Amino acid sequence: ITIPIGGTPIVTGTSGVGTPATANFSCTINKAQAVADASGSITVDVWKAAGAIPNSGNKISASAPVTLSSSQLNQDSDISGWDTTVSSGDVFWANVATVDGSLTSATVQIWCQ
Length: 113
Description:
The protein has no helices and seven strands. It has strands at 2-4, 21-22, 27-50, 66-77, 85-86, 90-99, 105-112. It starts with a strand and ends with a strand.
């Protein structure tokens, strides 16, 4: 899930940007990763819906959003409390919960097996 804002700073509440990601197989989420265009801080809530565009009511990241903290890469975000079950055809999207204002692009990757 990529959060590009066309060269302008990402802002809190940014959602539904980029292209939603669709799972092509069933699996269990075991890791989340975040990478940004520069060192900075951002937290991103992950949404998932079965065969539909997700919204805030479909949040799976519980109280553990994908997080960068004064860094450019976090390869092991805490996924405790997440709904980790993924079915083929599930659609993922994201919402920026917090951001420090220095980032113009960030990508969240969900790992599963």
